[in-house]
Amino acid sequence: MTDPFGVPPETRLPGSADDSAQGADPLGVLGTDAPDLSGPLTPSGHLRRRQLISRFAGAVQTASALLAVAVLGIVIYSVGSRGASVLSFGFLTKDPPAFVGLPGGGIAPEIVGTAVIIAIATAIAMPAGILTALYLTEFAGPWSARALRLALDLLNGLPTIVVGLFVFGLLVVGHHQTGFAGSFALAIIMLPLVARASQEVLLLVPSGMREAADALGVSRWRTVLGVVLPSARGGILTATVLALARAAGETAPLIYTTSIFSATVQTNPLAHEGLANIPVYIFTASEEASRYGFARAWGAAFILLMFILLVSLGSRAINSRATLSR
Amino acid sequence: MSVGTRVAGGRPANTRSASRPSDRLGDGLLRGVCMLAALLAVLAIAAISYQLIHGASPSIARFGLGFLSHSTWQPNFGVFGAGTFIYGTAVTSLIAMLLSVPLGISIALYLSMMAPRRVRSVVGPLVELLAAIPSVILGFWGILVLGPFLQAHLEPFLHSTLGFLPIFGPTPTTGSGLFIAGLILTIMVVPIIASISRDLFLSVPRDLQDGATALGATPWEVLRGVVLPSSASGIAAAAFLGLGRALGEAIAVTQVIGAGNFIHASLFQTGDTLASRIADQFQGAATKLTISSLFYLGLILLVIGLLANLAAQLITRRFDVSRVSAR
After folding, report:
1. Which residues 145-204 of B are in CB contact (within 8 Å) with A?
2. Is there a contact between A161 and B187 if contact means CB atoms under 8 Å apart?
3. Whole-angstrom distance, CA of residue B67 vs CA of residue B71
4. Averaged pLDDT for residues A213-225
5. What's the CATH code of the domain at A129?
6. Global pTM?
7. pLDDT (tens digit per residue) in B55-101
8. Which of A43, A63, A84 is the last residue of a domain?
9. Nearest to A152 by CA among A184, A195, A121, A183
10. Is B7 part of the contact surface with chain A (CB cutoff 8 Å)?
């Protein structure tokens, strides 16, 4: 920044009140009194202050980015160092002890339950989300598309505890907590994620492909199902997997729908009690201050975090390669 | 969208095949199924609103709008008020926004303007990964790692240097409170603001920046004079999205805020937000009136959450339009 020409000296004009004019004219070309050109050209006065401010702002920006990465690193390190020591084969396959305060045991029911809940939520949200995206890109007029996108964005921004409360009022009050109620709540959270991301992918399908199908006399529904959808398959799958990773860590929709569960492996989502799941397990363990409960919660957090990070990173990598090859 | 309408407009091209009954049936069927699926999202919002109003109606009938300002929450005496929680929500969200807006913007500036391409392609995804950490894990980390650290170092420091302000009172023994809740929310909101702002900054025309540089502006002056003003409305939208997230976060806040029932001046004291009060009552909601009052809290949360998101959407819409027409 300073001195690209190696030209001389103290560029400050004697008695110059306006330093900025000085800064804008470092070579003194415009000046009537030619400055002494025998030393190195360095900014002084106002220009120097402006450059210092600029450099300071740059340092602040770099520091902010470093801070964010550091927080991520500290969180992952905390979970990793405390969780990895708990991990063992037994931790993955055993039931938790009858009381939180007891040592040992594992989180097998939580792992199985989370898998069941997420699978059902995906089975609901994926088709609904993809069909919504198809409606947005293939059928909707401009007005209805705008209204629908607004609805999806609002649904996406809803506090997740509100969704949990809604499903609690709809399916649990007067009945029982069930794994299905939890799945239903998670499906509501996944729907806008799948729909919006799939819509982005469908918009990337070249319109020439649709026109070519039209030119061949192919009907709309065959074009959509046979041409548009298959060429967007990879992106839609990525969108679904990312939504799944997000839903896997959601706790707020589950505490009112599937938080009361037995400590043995269950797979029936319609049984008259909730299905065990990892997020609620961590939540309840964190509320009850017990050393062994905390240890198991760190282990559960480790498994959950690794799953989510690997899935997010993996699908992102696959997605970027697919985009590159296109 | 233009793709969809164009193809729809091109219908006459395949009238011949569409006139076949099976194809007409298929077209109608697919269109109908897609429309039904699309209606689900609208239906969900309507059903959620109805369910919350319905669930809250006993409490609304009992306490009316006084619920909003009344700050007593005593399930045993059947007295409920949201005042403490509205205060807690406002304070924690304010802390989160005060910290995360400048932080998010400077991270976005670094990622879009300063960082070398290689650093950018690593740090960018890392910042977004921060948003992928489940709130329950962040809250758990907050209790056991961040809380003790704040209690031992930051809070006594703030009290001794800025203690003349009542908000930095003496550190209580619990380690949980409004301040740490605000910090945890900051961690959750920063990636949202950073990733949206980064995309905004990257879309600022290069020519404008080069022009400013050619006029002698320093890098910071280019940012302040060109980049930030031309993306101001987008940043506001990002901030509202982040605010919506901060207002509605239940789990992580519940874990670190300490479920206090009173309004304290000091940020280091316990409190509760609307969302966290709903979350921490999940096992203790015994009476009908308690449950109804929780629904009332949820209704307040729904309204302010919708408002924050609506504000973001409206700003974005206007911003998009002005962008397009300026081109």
Report:
1. 145, 187, 190-191, 194
2. no
3. 8
4. 86
5. 1.10.3720.10
6. 0.85
7. 888 888 888 888 888 888 887 788 888 888 999 999 999 999 999 99
8. A84
9. A195
10. yes
